Amino acid sequence: MFDTKIYIQRREILKKSLGTGFILLLGNEESPMNYTDNQYPFRQDSTFLYYFGIDHPGFAAAIDIDEDKEYIFGDDITVSDIVWMGPQPSVAERAAKAGVKTSASLREMEDIIKRVIARGRQVHYLPQYRAFNILKIEHLLGIHPKRMKEYSSQLLINAVASQRLKKAPEEIREIEKALDIAYEMQTTAMRVASPGKNEKEIAGIMEGIAVSRGGRLAFPTIFSKNGQTLHNHFQGNKLKAGDIVVNDSGAETAMHYASDITRTFPVKGKFTNIQKDIYQTVLDMQLTAIAEIKPGVTYRSVHLSAAKILAENFIAAGLMKGNAEEAVNAGAHALFFPHGLGHLMGLDVHDMENLGESNTGYDNKTKRSDQFGLTYLRFAKELEPGIVLTVEPGIYFIPELIDMWKKENKFKNFINYDKVNKFKKFGGIRIEDDILVTTKGCKVLGKPIPKTIKEVEKLASMRK
After folding, report:
1. What is the architecture, at CATH level 2, of domain 169-460?
2. With 331 labelled, which of 3, 305, 412, 436 sits at a CA distance of 20 to 30 A?
C-alpha cells in the first residue's frame, strides 16, 4: 500500500467532485478455476485499490458524502481459516491502514444500504465486469443484471475517470518499476529466442521473470511469429531462421501498476532487407507519434500522423499509390494498420476500460469514428499532463483481409494489390512504448529497450 494519507486524499477529491450521495465500491472475490478451493491468482478491482489500497478478497467499501462517513466492510476470519491461511489482519486493522475509521461486517453492509434505499437516496456504483459482483449489486440494490450497466452512476464514472486519468508521482514510480521488469522480459527474449525453440519456451521464461520480481504478467503474453494476428495467444510454433517475432508483453508490480511493451525482432539476429524496410516504417511511425505528443494535442491527430507516415512510405515502395493524406482520410492505410495507436496505462494495462472507452478516451469534443481501423482507437481526446498511454503502431499483412478488400475492389485507387499479394506471408511488426505526457511534451518511461534495427540485431545476436 501507499501511505495512508494518499488514500485519504484520493477519497477527499472524489467526495468534492461528486458533492453529495452514497458511493458503493465493491472489491473482488476469489475466482475458482475448476472447484472452489483451486483458484486463479487473486486480482483486486483497480478502483477499489485506488481509493482504499486493500489487496485482499471479500471486501467492499462505502462513502456517505452527506453524512461524512466512510466504511470498510468485510468478515474477520475464523480459526478454521487460520489453519489454511495463517493469521490475517482484522477488518478494522485493514480499514485503519486505508485511513477509514469505521469497519463493519458484510451483513451490516446490507442493513446500512437498506436504510439508505429506504430513505430514497441513490446508491452510486460503477459498471461491473465480474459475475459475482453483478449478483451482489442485484442482491443489495434489487437491480436485474441485464440493467446493471444502465443504472450505474454516470456521475461517479465521470468523477473516477477524471481523477484516475492523471497519474501522481507515486504512480509513475510504480509504472517505472513495472517497466524495469518489462525490460528484463524483452531483452531476455531477444537473447534466448533461437531456431528450433518453441514460442511457449520463451513466453514461459518471461512469465518467470515477472513472477521472480515479485509481480505477475499484466496480461496474457503475445509472443508469436504470426504477428499478423493482433492478439495472438497461440504459442505452439517452432521458431526457425528468417522468422520475425512480435513480443507484446508486460508485468504488474506487487501494487498492480502495469507495463506494456512490444518489440519485434529477428530469430537469427538479422532482418532481411524487406523486413528492415517494413520495420523502419513502423519505427518511423512511432517516433513521429512520440514527437507530436504534448498537452492540447488530440491523440486522434497523433494516430493519423503515424498513419500518414505509413502511407507515404508505402507509396514510395509501390504498395500504395496516390496521395498519402487522401489515402489516410479515406482509411485505405487501415489494411495494414487496423488498430488504434495506443491506450491508457496505470493500475490496469488498459486503464479504466471497465468504465467504458466513451468515458475515458472520448468526450463531447471528440467522438468515436466509425471508419475501419480508426474506430478501434481507444483514446482519442486531448492530451493532458499526467496521462500515461502507449504508443504502439504496427504494420500487418493479414491474408484474409487483403483477399476481402481486393475482392471488393476496396480503395483500388490507393492500394496496389498485385504487389501487396506478394507480402501475404510476411506476418506483422509492432513497436510499443509507454509514454508520460508532461507539461511541455512527453517522456518515454522506463529504461530504453533496444528498438533501432542496429540495436535489435545486436541484442538478438547475443545468444544465451
Report:
1. Alpha-Beta Complex (3.90)
2. 436
